[in-house]
Amino acid sequence: MKAIELEYLDQIRHLMKQRRVALNLRQEAAARRAGVSIRTIQHFEQTGQIGLLKLLKLMVAYRMERKFLAFINDRTDWTIEELERAETRKQVR
Fold first, then answer.
1. Rounded CA gap, 64 and 29, in Å?
2. Which of 19, 34, 38, 42 is the most buried (most CB within 10 A)?
3. b or e along 19-40 (b: 16 or more beta carbons within 10 Å of the residue's beta carbon)?
């Protein structure tokens, strides 16, 4: 994995832990709320490693999913050509 990717994972790990703490949730309570194991949260908060589905479950539990979805849906950085291709559903092979 590239250094920049590891840095992003570390930032996500740190921000998600801060959010859990801000919500006054212990790891056990966060795990129950998200429907994941406490080991998942411990591992994620230590390493930044987590599967996408489990990360999304944590985002929902921490009430962060709306901002994440807004970010994913943001197309302001797309070029006109990319927007048109996406709308016409042209396949890329």
1. 17
2. 34
3. bbeeeebebeebbebbebeeeb
